[in-house]
Specification:
The complex is a heterodimer of chains A (135) and B (136).
Chain A lengths: L1 H18 L5 H8 L8 H21 L20 H17 L3 H6 L6 H21 L1
Chain B lengths: L1 H23 L5 H7 L9 H20 L11 H17 L4 H10 L3 H25 L1
Helix pairs in contact in B: 5-6
Classes of the chains: A mainly alpha (135), B mainly alpha (136).
Chain lengths: 135, 136
């Protein structure tokens, strides 16, 4: 049951990204380019996504278990450490270079080109490299 | 028109986040889901795998109703490899990306996520500026 929900959520999430055109790197670069041609789309996308999610997280806070009687797995850390800042900075640099982040890259694999595939392979290599170093 | 698309798309993303949270109890962080696929035993990763399959088939379902919007990548291959490595490594080191920190973390008012989100947007803006003004 939970895997079917995950599948459905993946489909819904992917469609949301396509509708919002977040799968198009030039939209992301447009958002990250300040000036008169600034593209605020990502701000509207994030605001509406956060707005709806806010109610879900608030609802979850008042419940002991999910509607399927599973435990919530919500991060509890509150410390601000160097890995958080350095990781976000490196992520931001990579995001700014290409205009792709993990979800849009995976979603656009089907209609992208060989560059999309190259990005995904590099991204997964970066994730695997982190796992190797962390050990 | 573009604002409407952004708001509808963002709301659909919010619905996906809410469903995964309220039914499965998971935070929708795509870098965590992808990176988690490297963890063993793999039997704990089925939900992650199915989520990724969902992402992969979403354009085919979208395409039944509407044409797929365009994808314009202007980077050369060296930039793509660099960008991909940084996005992959950085999101794991920083425990999240645009979905986990930017949407879920901000929605639950996590200070860590607010700081991470501000940091990656700031560095994204700086990177684009440097590439457009200094390198080219």
């Amino acid at each position: 049951m939970t895997v079917l929900i995950s599948l459905l959520v993946g489909i819904i999430f992917g469609m949301g990204l396509i509708i919002a055109q977040m799968t198009n790197p030039s939209k992301i670069i447009g958002f990250l380019t300040l000036g008169e041609n600034w593209d605020p789309s990502l701000l509207f996308v994030m605001t509406s996504a956060v707005f709806i999610s806010f109610f879900a997280f608030n609802f979850a806070k008042q419940k002991k278990q999910t509607l399927l009687h599973l435990n919530f797995e919500i991060p509890k850390r509150t410390d601000i450490d160097l890995p958080l800042i350095a990781g976000a900075a490196l992520f931001g640099i990579g995001w700014g270079i290409v205009g792709l982040c993990p979800a849009p890259a995976i979603v656009s694999l089907a209609f992208g080109n060989s560059q999309t595939l190259l990005f995904i392979v590099s991204m997964l290599s970066g994730m695997y490299l982190f796992k190797l170093i962390k050990k | 028109m573009i604002i409407t698309q952004s708001l509808i798309g963002g709301s659909v993303i919010g619905i996906a986040v809410s469903l995964l949270l309220l039914l499965n109890g998971k935070v929708l962080g795509v870098s965590g889901i992808l990176g988690g696929l490297f963890n063993l035993p793999f039997s704990k990763n089925y939900w992650r795998l199915f989520f990724v399959i969902g992402l992969l088939i979403s354009p085919f379902i979208y395409n039944v109703f509407y044409p797929i919007p365009s994808v314009e990548i202007t980077s050369n291959n060296l930039m793509i490899v660099m960008g991909g490595l940084l996005v992959g490594f950085g999101s794991r080191l920083g425990s999240g990306c645009t979905s986990g920190h930017g949407v879920c973390g901000v929605a639950r008012l996590s200070v860590r996520s607010l700081i991470a989100t501000t940091t990656f947007i700031l560095f994204g803006v700086l990177t684009v500026y440097v590439m457009q003004k200094v390198l080219i």
